[in-house]
Amino acid sequence: MKTAKKIMHTALMEKHPAPWYKHRWPWLLMAGPAAVLIAGFITMWISFSGADALVVDDYYKQGKAINQDLRRDRAAASLGLSLSLRYDAASGVLIGQLHGVRDDTALNLLLVHPTVPERDIRLVAKPDQRGVFSVELPMLERARWQVQIEDVARSWRLHGEWAWPQQKTTDIRPLSDKV
Fold it and tell me: 118, CA 20 to 30 Å: which among 10, 34, 148, 158?
C-alpha cells in the first residue's frame, strides 16, 4: 500500500510532465476525424471535377423523342431490315451489310461509347446494290458499343449492342423482332 502512495506522490510531484503531443492517445483520438475530413475533401473533388454526362437536362423532351425512335424501329421491321457488322482491326476497316435494303442511298452509322460521349463515332456509309459497305475506322476501343444505323432521311433505324472485341461480328435486327 505504501508503494502505491509513493508512486502517486512521485508522479504528482514531477516538475516537467511530457507535452500533450508526445502522448499517443490524443493522436489516436484525432485520427478518426482527420480521416473523415480527408475522405470528404476527396469526395468533393471527385464530384466537382467532372460533370455526369449521363444526366439529361430535359427528360420530358427526351421521352417524346424515344417514342419517335420506336416508330423508326417499327419502320425498319416492316421493311425487313437487318445489319451485319465486323471490324477488321488489322486494316482499320468496319465492314457491314444491310440486308433488305432496296437502294444505295447513304447511311448514318453511329457507334455510341457506353460512358464517354466524346468517344462516340459518327460515320457515313455508302452501300452498294447488295447493301455491302466498308468504312475506314481507326482502332476501335474495347467497350460495349451501342450501334445505330439509319437512312439519311431518318425514316427507319436499327439499334443494338456490340461488345467488341469479345464479339468479332454482330447482327442487329429491328427492335420488334427482339421482343
Answer: 158
Please say whether the beta carbons of 142 and 55 come within 8 A.
no
Backbone angles phi, psi at 117, to 5 degrees: -60, -25
CA angle 11, 16, 20 (to 5 degrees): 90
Phi/psi-derived region of residue 4, left when phi > 0, alpha when psi is between -120 and 50, beta in every other case: alpha
Using DSSP, state whether 160 is helix, strand or coil: strand
The mean per-residue pLDDT over the stretch 98-118 comes to 85
Domain ranges of the chain: 81-178
Q: CATH assignment of 81-178?
A: 2.60.40
CA distance 92 to 137: 5
The rounded distance, in Å, linking the Cα atoms of 82 and 149 is 10
Other beta carbons within 10 angstroms of residue 3's beta carbon come to: 7
* 3 state DSSP class of 48: helix
DSSP, collapsed to helix, strand or coil, labels residue 155 as: coil
Cell readout for 71 is: 416508330
- Strand, coil or helix: 156: coil
- Tell me the mean pLDDT in the region 46-65: 66
Please count the other Cβ atoms lying within 10 Å of the Cβ belonging to residue 74.
15
Q: pLDDT category, 179, cuts 50, 70, 90?
A: very low
